[in-house]
Amino acid sequence: MIQIPRAISGNRTWLLTRLVINGFCQAAATVANAILVEMAFDKLITTANASFDNKMVWQIGLGLVAAAIVNALLRVMERADAERIGQDYAYEIRMILYERLMSLAPRALQNRSQGGVMLRFVGDLTALRQWVSLGLARLTVALTTTIASLAALSLVSSRLAFTVGLVLAIGALSSMKLGGRMQSVAKEARRRLSNLAANINEKVASIAVVQVFGQSQREKKRIARQSRRLEEAMVDRAMVAGQLRGITEGTAAIASGAALVVGALEVAAGRTTPGVVVAAMTIVGLLVPPLRDLGRVQEYWHNSRVALQKVEQFLKTPSLVTEQRNAPELQLGAGRLEFDCVSLKGSLHEVSAIAEPGKIVALVGPNGAGKSTLLSLAARLIDPDKGKILLDGQDLAKYSLESVRRAIGMAGPDLPLLRGTVEKNLRYRWRDAPVEEITRVRQICGIDAVLAELAEGEKTKVAEGGKGLSAGQRQRIGLARAILGNPPVLLLDEVDANLDAQATAVVDRVLAEHKGTVLIITHRKERLAAADVIWYLENGRLVEKGPPEVLLNSDGPTARLFRDSQQKVLSA
Ligand SMILES: Nc1ncnc2c1ncn2[C@@H]1O[C@H](COP(=O)(O)OP(=O)(O)OP(=O)(O)O)[C@@H](O)[C@H]1O
């Protein structure tokens, strides 16, 4: 199980140390400010008439300006360091999440909502970053500054320091008591945001379904309902956050008042000067901005706990593919692909078959028979529960995933084009492919004809999934992407389903010219003629295998499947 790094570790420990130093420096500037205020009060204001020192006024004035500038600069540095520490933490978790995402089998991800997964990368990371940079970092500096300033004050008047410290401590305790409530409202707000995001994400992806079935109004009502619920949860959260802020602001005001009252008593008792009281109030005044921010720290903390839980849950998703540590590279060979008693729960049962090098195997069978699963196993998009898959005698499970994928080319509806240019998609498998290889692939897949139809040729922009191109154009680019580099094994999943004769001709050309072994899933009888052998699957079992001329002319399940479908077409 991948461990989530601690918020403070590695490089971030140094950044936090810098923040602590910054806190001490802010305390020093605050205390310097307070001392100057005390001097101004005791030496100039209360004795102004006796001996007014013009030079001292200037010195104190300049000192106050210098302290203010230093404080402002320290706040700028603090903000930058706080952001750095939060961004660094978010970066580390983002990379862990991405690595995990890439190690998951597409099938493992299919059971999760896309919106939910997106939220891990956007909302949850924001919550974690906010906690570290706006919560933890702020807390560190504010605590350092407060403790150091109060310690300095206690040297002049311990009673004043104690009074201010006590009020601040009571304020902190009362805001902590609200923590439990904050946790539940933060969780609820997060849950509702997640529901809304998942729904909107799905509607964006399936806009045509909503429109075709005339459900726009119903879906609008659903979004409105979810938005209202989110609004309520957010207002609840804001109310608790407001209460927390009220407590911190009230605490600051009470601390000021308490310093004034206790200071008055101390002055009356002759234990301190009015200047010290004013200095104490100045310190409280300077502590107010950081304390005000602290009101939100708990909110950030609770948001981050919820986010962390979600991130942990995501990291625990079973990957369905396991790569051995330091797995060696698979050696490329002629492309002999062997399934040795392969089983996958719910999909395949003890499938054993060999695709000989350079042969074309047509996978046929009714829907849900396990054909696509067999291709996914060959590409190691999923690992079998039992049995082995061997490529040129090498057990795929023992070799690095990258080297296995280098040996495999794959095309089909589950492998859409990516956002970017046509060229980027063509070269996706091999960025620096030599011109001759690109030319070969372009020729086989009829890419030049596609480019001639596009205004900007290779530079034409493609949206996610290849939107913006016709199904035939997408199919050709997808095929070209798969055969680039001439992989020893080519896996084609219904690449010509529902396409015209021109598109079918492209598949014929690929089958004729590709030198490696090909496994092709097809529901077209004419496609079987090009195959060397047919594997017929049903209910996850390999029921029949043999050359097409034998299987299609026997009374076996393959012949029955095509006879039945033909009859259905004729009677329709
Ligand atoms: N993401 C998934 N999680 C769990 N089981 C799945 C998943 N995808 C498919 N299956 C199951 O695996 C079995 C085989 O499905 P598969 O898609 O391999 O069949 P197929 O022969 O390719 O079907 P079709 O011709 O409809 O594409 C089915 O019972 C299906 O329910």
From TrEMBL:
Molecular function as annotated in GO: ABC-type oligopeptide transporter activity; ATP binding; ATP hydrolysis activity
CDD domains given in the database record: ABC_6TM_exporters
Keyword Transmembrane helix: yes
Membrane-topology annotation of the record: Multi-pass membrane protein
Residue spans crossing the bilayer: 15-36, 56-74, 160-180
GO cellular component terms attached to this protein's record: plasma membrane
This protein's record includes keyword Membrane: yes
Residues annotated as domain ABC transporter: 315-564
Domain ABC transmembrane type-1: residue ranges: 23-303
Annotated keywords: ATP-binding, Membrane, Nucleotide-binding, Transmembrane, Transmembrane helix
Compartments, as annotated in UniProt: Cell membrane
PANTHER family linked: ATP-BINDING CASSETTE SUB-FAMILY B MEMBER 10, MITOCHONDRIAL, ATP-DEPENDENT PERMEASE MDL1, MITOCHONDRIAL
UniProt name for this protein: ABC transporter permease
